[in-house]
Write a structure and sequence with these properties.
heterodimer, A: alpha/beta, Rossmann fold, 2 domains, seven-stranded mixed β-sheet, 12 helices, B: alpha/beta, six-stranded parallel β-sheet, two-stranded antiparallel ribbon
Amino acid sequence: MVTMTYREAVRDAMAQAMRADPDVFVMGEDIAEMGGSMGVTQGMLEEFGPERVRNTPISEMAIVGAGIGAAMQGMRPIVEIMYEDFTTLAMEQIVNQAAKHRYMSGGQLSVPLTIRTQGGAGWSPGAQHAQQVEAWFCHVPGLKVVYPSTPADARALLWSSIYDDNCVLFFEHRLLYPLKGEVPDELEPLELGSARVHREGEDVTVVAIGRLVHEALKAAEAAEAEGISVEVLDPRTLLPLDEDALVRSVRKTSRCVVAHEAVVRMGFGAEIAAVVQERAFDHLDAPVERVGAKFCPVPFAPVMEQWVVPHMEDVLAAIRRTVGRE
Amino acid sequence: MAKVEQKGHTLSRERLVDFLRELLLIRRFEEKVEERFRAGDLSGFLHVSLGQEAIAVGVCRALDGSDVVASTHRAHAHALALGMHPNELMAELYGKVEGCSRGYGGSMHLYDVARGLIGSNAVVGGGLPSITGSALAFKLRGEPRVAVAFLGDGATNIGTFHESLNLAQLWGVPAVFVCENNGYAESTPAWQQLPITDLAKRAVAFGMHSITVDGQDVEAVYHAAQRAMKHARDGKGPVFLLANTHRLTGHYVGDPQVYRSREELREARETQDPLEKLRARLELPGEEWDELEHEVAVLVQASVDFALNGTDPRPEDALENVYA
């Protein structure tokens, strides 16, 4: 095992793929000399040169669309969209083009494109740099959606995303970049659609993604002190979703909390709750609890921002509700 | 207005008759599509290329076998000109498994990857970025291939046009953007949607080489397209090929065309028909013309018979091909 940050893990997956395969290249805004606005691609220009680490104009439609075109020709481009809020600018290309070419062509074409993006609140960037939009893409047949929470998962899942023959939206959380963790010496790909149980427990399952995995782990510690045994499960890929692991866990614990940083309403948690009630209804001892941001844009003022997005305390409160300890 | 290229007509009579046969095939195919739609055979939304056939033929004949093309909602002509068999195209319009997109696409989503057609697009301008990206792949791999996008004048107003041409020129990729300028964005005339009359000026903004050509003259289009492809293939960067043309029918099959006068349409049909222009130039004897007509009629009718005898997909096949 070696220790690396989440940021280094993302970079390492790209660099290893690029060393092994001339068809892999990266492009995006400010990713070359500057190394990306989050420093993820730092040093890659020096190693791979400007043809394979391509700075682009501020043109999200064309960046994503050019990635689609190169992918159609059999390359495996990695496109960086600086903030996930800006995926909205490329929505047509992602939803109408990348997701549908395989289908509309009756299987003749595939689009092995990876779109990396990042975001999240917690540093007061304001409403256009902090929204979590991963759930939007889960509503689009033809896309895959990945959201790792640890360095090891980030590295393995990014590699698997690059080598997936579909368009993958790969979400990173800004606050996780400095997070350190152990990763295997050798990069081992991970199947997209396999959940990870971070902590086993008996009383409540917390299904969490992204930053909220870590909030959930802290909440689980606190709950333990109160005599509540919490299992924390990270789906890691939202689409495809490892329903079996989720259902298995909830059948064991009989209670479920879903936690993400995106707004609760119409969110990923709603889908989790639906799956649980469809497949584990008879096992449930409490309604499924949803934890997420309040229904407003992410505000600027730090006191408002912190109040809007969920934290460990919100997860803990939800855990308590499921066991009847308000 | 930019100078319209008037290169000498140099092709052999034999070659031109070959072009004429192709123009005629597209014309009669599209007329058959209109007929079968009106008869209630065909579903969906159909856009035919009557009047714009010479651009499809002139451009596609200038391609190499390994080049790729992204088309528009008005795609039948491009598909046929790329060599798609009429049977495959008609079967797709009938929603059959034997169709070029196996029934998953329809008129606006034609694919024939083996022949270079990487999709016609129902989103105006939707295919342009992928042409810049395909051309980028060719450049990165050092392959002597060109990526070609067809687009209409209306598409020059959409963001993907500007972002894609900007990026293509910036990176000097081997792409050719063929603008079929028929003067209407669906029903909206140029004067209501374009602040300039000479669309070649769009290319100037990107520093892109442009060529303007009479889109009703198939040989002129062919020569212009050849120069454009050579420019791109030689590594000199992308080209904006502006082909001024006339849509001798509505935007879609069934369009009552309330937005233009009958006189305008009649005049265009009488003076701007690319098929009639080439036929007159060749002074084709009636007998030879009748032979062509017969040959094409047989092909077109066979495509309908083929489609009618085609296989319906199973409803549950809808769940296939979502993921690779």
